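Researcher: Structure prediction, please.
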Amino acid sequence: MNYDTTEVDRLSGTTETQRTANFRWLSQQGEQTKIEAAKLQTDLIRQARRIAGQIMTPEFAYAMHALALVKMVWMETAQQRKGVKLSDDEFAKVQEIRIDRIKSKKRKKSSPKKTVIRVRFYQLIGTLREKGLSWREISDYISTHHKISLAHSYIRETFNELTAEKEKAGL
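Model: Predicted structure follows.
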């Protein structure tokens, strides 16, 4: 890969450091804000192609994405700067971004035991269930042969949840 980053600098009016900071900002946003960034990027691409007849290159698309982020970050931080007034629409959009960020922070912690069941024991549990073992017997089997203590009810709940996820994914 040999892309021209000077072209990205020129088109977006940003430096690599600024782009890195803006992409870090985007990574902390919620899904709705990320989609809004993609929408703004698409709008910028259409405008540039309509006005200047810009040819679509990877550098151009990346530069427009960087420019969209510059605009979004500027709008969110505008209230902190002197003499900058946001319109009602811009203020509402900033509020939506902030609310989306708060909503996106609600993440479930992954359980270490659930990960162990998913990675190491899912296939084994399925095989043991096919052979007619009860959940208690599976718990005893894992405890005896693998030296990991898992409650039979937790094994059942987790196995059923993982099976449902797998079926939903079509695997």
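Model: The first helix runs from residue 5 to 12.
Researcher: Thanks, that helps.
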